[in-house]
Amino acid sequence: MPNWPIFLERVSRYVPSTTTVSAAKESDSSTSASPMADEPTPRTDENSKRAHQDLLKKACLGATTAAADV
Question: pTM of the prediction?
Fold first, then answer.
């Protein structure tokens, strides 16, 4: 069984965190203000926006082509 308090203390030396180990013990993870890992966050860089637009165009073209094949 891993020793999480020691592990988190050592990791905190290398990875900046907004909470400490003692604060993490006291707080409930369901009331955390930071976003959960399974909640997507939009990417706002121009390359991502352009790629998203390209995917939407391909989806529309695929939908119209698939409907014509039926």
Answer: 0.36
Within-domain flag for 38: no
64, amino acid identity = T
Domains held by the chain: number? 1
pLDDT in tens, 20-58: 555 555 554 455 566 677 878 888 899 999 999 999 999
Q: What are phi and psi of 13, to 5 degrees?
A: -70, -30
Number of H helices, E strands in the chain: 3, 0
**DSSP codes, 9-48:** HHHHTTS--SS-HHHHHHS-GGG-SSPPTTS-----SHHH
User: Residue 16: which domain range?
Assistant: 4-28+44-69
